[in-house]
Amino acid sequence: KMDDDDDIPQLSSHTLAALQEFYLEQQQREGMKTSQGFNQYSIGSIEEDWQLSQFWYSDETALCLAKEAVLAAGKGGRIACVSAPSVYQKLKEQDGEDFSVCILEYDRRFSVYGEEFIFYDYKHPLDLPENLLPHSFDIVIADPPYLSEECLQKTAETIKYLTKGKILLCTGAVMEEQAAKHLGVKMCKFIPKHSRNLANEFRCYVNYASGLD
């Protein structure tokens, strides 16, 4: 029987080399796209990686959530996207809007976004850079990578550390009770859609009067 998740299987040096080569090729592809006037923030510039349990929102959903975040953050507001890269990418397309945004993400491909990228592993919820001050974001949008109470509970620690108050959580409908318990959020009427259909019904949850009802 396998032990807990703590025993992360170590990759062989061969696999590591292959991975590095893969990422290098990917970076070169990204680089080519950028040099061809490709918009690096558009969804699809980084493909979803199912091994990391990534599922991008549909364009409409990502845009709707991005607009909601901008409204909720207010003028000059700060928005944190925790494991919600497709919303982050949509936020970056909102040119001329007055807000700033950070992405906390396990997938290091997002480091192409420079200082806005913060490596994040939900298993170490408060292992964050010192310059990420507590309660320094007007709203935190989070989409925990797994539908488990452990994942939600740990991601919740991060959310509570970062937010001044407002929380927008996207997770499965089955997580409704846990979401209320750990974050005090309630389900909205708005139903987020993914670019590929997921087996689990997904919902949005908030703890403030949002435009998603």
Automatic annotation (TrEMBL):
It is found in: Cytoplasm. SUPFAM superfamilies: S-adenosyl-L-methionine-dependent methyltransferases. InterPro entries: DNA_methylase_N6_adenine_CS, Efm5/EEF1AKMT1, Mlase_EEF1AKMT1/ZCCHC4, SAM-dependent_MTases_sf. It comes from Rhagologus leucostigma. The keyword Methyltransferase applies. The keyword Aminoacyl-tRNA synthetase does not apply. It catalyses: L-lysyl-[protein] + 3 S-adenosyl-L-methionine = N(6),N(6),N(6)-trimethyl-L-lysyl-[protein] + 3 S-adenosyl-L-homocysteine + 3 H(+). It comes from the Eukaryota. The lineage of its organism: Eukaryota, Metazoa, Chordata, Craniata, Vertebrata. GO terms for molecular function: nucleic acid binding; protein-lysine N-methyltransferase activity. This is EFMT1 methyltransferase. Keywords: Cytoplasm, Methyltransferase, Transferase. GO terms for biological process: methylation. Pfam families: N6-adenineMlase. GO terms for cellular component: cytoplasm.
